[in-house]
Amino acid sequence: MNLSKPLVASLALASLLTGCVGTGPNTQQGVVGGAALGALAGAIIGNNSGNHNGAAGAAIGAVAGGIAGGTIGNSIDHERGTLYTSEQQATTNVVVAQPPPPPPPPADVVVMQSGPGTVWIPGYWAYDGYRYVWIGGRWARPPHHRYHAYVSPHWERRPSGYVYIQGYWR
């Protein structure tokens, strides 16, 4: 049983998918981890199914695992607020002639500071390319001592149109 070729091919595909613009670190890790586990499980199941087709099982498992892992990671990114540390990382591939107006924000309830060194990030409407999703305000610790401020998501005018920039630390 030689699982190395399908597994390597599946991991290479997953690695390519991690460069998707507009995704956070948990989404990217979820794609890679899900694809790797899915490829391994698919190869074992495909090989032991009687057809001895581990390569097809690995490919199907990698795609299914990558999608599932990416979806779970993306929901974690939205729940926690992704940790982009530059405008370049936070720039999405969403370009529009005119930014769609967000709905009015719900009342943002400020809770007590969660600990020393944390920064209040007010709630905001995150744009996912199709619709706005409300992300509630929260206290967050900057990812590194050199980051002191959180830049909220916003639209920025570029020569090609308006580009959506996700929130990031600076």
Give an overview in words.
- This protein has a 3-stranded antiparallel sheet with strand order 1-8-7. The chain has a two-stranded antiparallel ribbon with strand order 2-5. Strands 3-4 form a two-stranded antiparallel sheet.
- It is built from 4 helices and 9 strands.
- Strand 7 and strand 8 (161-165) form a beta hairpin.
- It has helices at residues 4-17, 25-48, 54-80, 87-90; strands at 91-96, 119-121, 124-127, 132-135, 138-140, 150-151, 154-158, 161-165, 168-169.
- The chain folds into 2 domains: 4-80, no CATH class; 87-169, no CATH class.
- With 170 residues, it is an alpha+beta fold.
- Helix 1 (4-17) packs antiparallel against helix 2, helix 1 (4-17) runs parallel beside helix 3 (54-80) and helix 2 (25-48) packs antiparallel against helix 3.
List keywords for this structure.
two-stranded antiparallel ribbon; single chain; 170 residues; alpha+beta
Distance between the termini: 50 Å
The backbone outline, from C-alpha atoms, is elongated
- Count of domain modules: 2
Integer-rounded radius of gyration: 20 Å
User: Helix/strand/pairing class, anyone?
Assistant: alpha+beta
Order of adjacent strands in the largest pleated sheet: 1-8-7
Biggest sheet, open or closed, and with what strands and sense? Answer: 3 strands, antiparallel
Mean pLDDT value: 76
The percentage helix is 40-55%
